[in-house]
Amino acid sequence: MNVPILVYHHVYGDDDPELAHTTGAGVVTATALRRQVMHLLDEGWRVVATGDLVDGLVAGTALPQRSACLHFDNGWLDTATVAAPILRECGVAAMCYPISDSITAASEGRSVEVRTATEGDIEKPFMTWDQVRELVDAGHEIGNHTYSHPRLLGRTPGRIAWEIERAQLVIAPHTGRAPKLFRAPYGLRWFGLFTILKRKSMQLVM
């Protein structure tokens, strides 16, 4: 069974000036996100939790036909302020993969520059841990997207393990549990990564 995963990075208001300066995959307007989610629902698709998807794959149990997942990467502020209200209106929940160090910086009133595959080196607002908790309370999932969002290719296993473990330790007190799912920045697939995640009882989601 194929389960499509729709991955978003930024969701801007239709008249947000950032739209003129932001390009790349997963950048949409609020109207576009609402239209896409409603299209899924109108066509009989069911938005399922990524955790349920992975658990079903591991256990070999079937999900309902026409299941799909929604992902929001990095933890940008617009995930909480623009995307989340739309998802609430549509009655669906998503998986969010915040960069934990950036969320901490935003919570402390500091800005931080990060490198992303879609936008290069950028400095944009991230959500705070209070907003992350609001997402959890609304039924959204929180995954591990590393502590500082480095390109993992070429990093030592020890460094990769530190990025994952540090993020786990930072996220858990704010959400009530350590994430079970990991999404690598830049989509790294590497056998050693599977070994690291297995030791931490985590699953890789691309």
Could you list some keywords that capture this structure?
206 residues, alpha/beta, 5-stranded parallel sheet, two-stranded parallel ribbon, 40% helix
Put the structure in a nutshell.
The protein contains seven helices and eleven strands. With 206 residues, it is α/β, with parallel strands linked by helices.
Please characterize this protein's 3D structure:
The protein has 206 residues and is of the alpha/beta class. It is 40% helix and 17% strand.
Task: List strands and helices in order, with pairings.
Layout (H helix, E strand, L loop, with lengths): L4 E4 L1 E3 L14 E3 H13 L3 E2 L2 H10 L7 E8 L2 H14 L4 E4 L1 H8 L6 E3 L3 E3 L6 H9 L3 E2 L14 H19 L5 E2 L8 H9 L3 E2 L2
Parallel strand pairs: 1-5, 2-3, 4-5, 5-6, 6-9, 10-11
Antiparallel strand pairs: 7-8
Helix pairs in contact: 1-3, 6-7
- Main beta sheet strand tally, sense and closure: 5 strands, parallel
What is the string of SSEs from the N terminus onward? EEEHEHEHEHEEHEHEHE
Return residue spans where pLDDT drops below 50 for at least 5 consecutive residues.
none
Rg calculated over all Cα atoms: 16 Å
- Alpha-beta classification: alpha/beta
Percent in strands: 15-25%
Straight-line distance between termini: 16 Å
Number of strands: 11
**Total count of helical runs of at least 4 residues:** 7
Q: What percent of residues adopt helix (DSSP H or I)? A: 25-40%
Rough outline: globular
Query: What is the averaged pLDDT score?
Result: 89
